[in-house]
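REVIEWER CHECKLIST
Item 1: Sequence provided? yes
Item 2: Single chain? yes
Item 3: Sequence as submitted:
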Amino acid sequence: MFFRSLLERVRRLHERDVASGAGWVELPGSLGRKYPNAAREWAWQWVFPATRLYRDHETGQHRRHHLHETVLQRAVRNAVRAAGITKPAGCHTFRHSFATHLLENGYDIRTVQELLGHRDVTTTMIYTHVLNRGPGAVRSPADLLVKGSGDQPRIAVDDVRCRPRYTAAPRSLMPPRGNTP
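Item 4: Structure as written out by the authors:
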């Protein structure tokens, strides 16, 4: 839902830019020469546009670039401080968390390597150190079938050992009373 509303706001901004004679973006390679009007099309606009326009000296077009990376880095740093987190954390922390969670959820190391863009798998293997929990961390594939609805057991996480613990809903061994076929 957030992403949809973000795209709607960006689209309205782009429409205002086009109406004022701006709304251009720089296209990669020779696409600008091949498709001269494509640089104003919605499909080529940045998802996270800059707040200000600039004038390209070569073409004279008024363009909007993407947000600079420092804007996001500053926002994350401020959010970490506001949350009272004392450990060092930044944008790169999300990358490490992403890789770690993929490996914890059973994705193979080669898939994670490709997603992170590592040339060598030994770089990706750095993330496997968190998986060394011993034999107590092994879970049955049947554990993944539990949905937690109705009277089925629910999975909760044991914070100390990071292993699932099961809490079963009360069950009756007697059939329900009333009009049963």
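Item 5: Key structural point noted by reviewer: The mean pLDDT is 81.
Item 6: Recommendation: ____
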